[in-house]
Amino acid sequence: MKRAFIIFLCAVLLCLSLCSCKKEPESSTSESGSGTAEQTTEIHSQASPFKAVIGYYSSDSLNPYKTKSRTNQCVAPLIYDSLFKVSESYEALPLLAESIEIDGKKVTVSLKSGLSFSSGNAVTAADVSYSFVLAKSSPLYSDRLANIASCTDSADTLIFTLSVPDVFVASCLDFPVVERSSGKKELPTGSGRYTIKKQNNSYVLTASESSTSAEVMEQKHIYLLDLGATENQIYLLRTGALSCFFDPDGKKSNQKTDTGVSKVMLNNLVFLGFNSENELLSDARVRRAIALLTDKDELAASAYDSMAQSAFCVFNPKFATAAALKELKTTADPVAAASLLDECSLTLKSAASKVRLTKDGDRASFRLIVNKEDERRLKAAKLIKSRLEKGGLAVEISSLSFDDYKSAVENGEFDLYLGEVKLCANMDLSPFFSSGGKARYGIDMNSPLCDAYFDFKEGKIDISTFESVFEEELCFLPLCYRMGAVYYSRPLKFEGAPTESDIYSNIYSWSF
Questions:
Q1: What is the largest CA-CA distance in the chain?
Q2: Would you place residue 254 in the very low, low, confident or very high pLDDT band (cuts 50, 70, 90)?
Q3: Distance (Å, rounded) from C-alpha 469 to C-alpha 164?
Q4: What share of the chain is helix, strand, coil (3-state, %, to 5)?
Q5: Global pTM?
């Protein structure tokens, strides 16, 4: 009897042990992806690491024309298609568009046939022109559409009229297309890879049956997690509450995150501005000498913690059209710089000296202003100062508050300044070369480079010809293009790389 009892007791213990190993049922909170800052602890304990979850802010709109946060903006390409999408190499790839013809200021776009919104209604040219009006007045899309004066529709064709000819305009036609008259709703109707619906207190994305995407979505459902006031998204990844998030600054890249990470090239150009009214800098040879003394690779690796790529030309290093220019140097060449400075009569004080003097016998020196609130640019300024002083040019760094820095740049109170500008996907450089451009300060608008740029934009000259003029005149010095980073939870497997215009472009391959 005693032996039988022991056998029975062992069986009970074994059964209890097996039961304890079973996976806990998933809660409705985890299923819906809902959660606020106050619910963070509960989410961490209940979230499944095998659900695809991305973040959003309930305090911000998910309407693509009204959203302000970068996080919510990243969700839009999953729900809304556009005429074209921008590839990693900044090429315009047709999405809703069948074809495009560019004839000077006239751009004709034909739609693909058989397109439909998630509502079942057909996507028409009238829907596109309606969406264009909304996008044109939206802060998020207004800059890239600024050169498009108007849009008219007829049948399955759209006619865009440009203010200035632009052979790369297709890259600007990536605004979200919504069903006519739904654009002012909180969730307009789209034709993208996923549809969106409210579930409990949050949202869920479901793979759309009407999507024209050739990619098969491995994840049929994507859950949105309200990030609330949560700042530590790395922790959310580790706990499985979040599958992926985008950091546009890439500042977490040097931390031990214990997560998957993919770098994303941004179209943010960091540059050194020259004041053409400065007597020394009015000579292009001096500007070119400064460029030769500057080590762009060093700046990208050290000042930007390898979260930037040195600019071998004025355009983004990923820009496919600029591929033929990649032989250009990005490291310092002090010997060539010295030769140019000698030509400009900026002579060495003595054979053993590293001090260069002007023709009046004064020390050749420059004031470099920088926004002290940007730690990376401060580091870049110090590296530039070090390199230029090794070449005999004195540099005084003035680190200013943003307001004082902005005022000094706008009033021309600088010799050199470190700036950054966000370029549109069509590589529009008009911020530098137009009279109202945000980065025009210090540039001589009568420079041959300005005319050369608009000839290139119109297609009259090729990129190599434009780059030759640019290097000769060098009205400003491109230093590097910044990178962001996408972080993934460890269980998540994926193929392909995200792009700036579609952070979740590889979502089709997500699996666990």
A1: 114
A2: low
A3: 21
A4: 30, 25, 45
A5: 0.88
